[in-house]
């Protein structure tokens, strides 16, 4: 059991999302050139990603882009997503401010 198994469809969907990150506004042909995934498969993947709200298709030219919802999630930081060094400096600062105060 030394080998790990992956989900090929998910890998391909992630490959499409990575291509859209690299080239934010892309045509079907652009994505095909970047990923090497056949156009019929790409259409199914793009349709699935669009229905799930992860990407959108522009009406004017039919190009695909990552939706604002996914971009917002990628930029949103969790309050617990702080480096250990930063957390330690914050605790040291708090300790200095409260030194000598009764608990």
CATH class, named Mainly Alpha
- Radius of gyration from the CA trace? 22 Å
Mean pLDDT: 82
Series of H and E elements: HHHEEHH
Number of domains: 1
Reading side by side through the largest sheet, how are the strands ordered?
A: 1-2
Query: Which structural category fits the helices and strands?
Result: mainly alpha
CATH fold field value: Arc Repressor Mutant, subunit A
Q: Into which percentage range does the β-strand content fall? A: 5-15%
Low-pLDDT segments: none
Q: Provide a count of the helices.
A: 5
Assembly type: single chain
The count of DSSP E runs of length 2 or more, i.e. the number of strands, is 2
In this structure, how is the largest beta sheet organized? 2 strands, antiparallel
Give the helix level as a range of percent.
Answer: 55-70%
The CATH H-level superfamily is Winged helix-like DNA-binding domain superfamily/Winged helix DNA-binding domain
Distance between the termini: 55 Å
* Tertiary shape: elongated
Question: What CATH architecture do you see?
Answer: Orthogonal Bundle
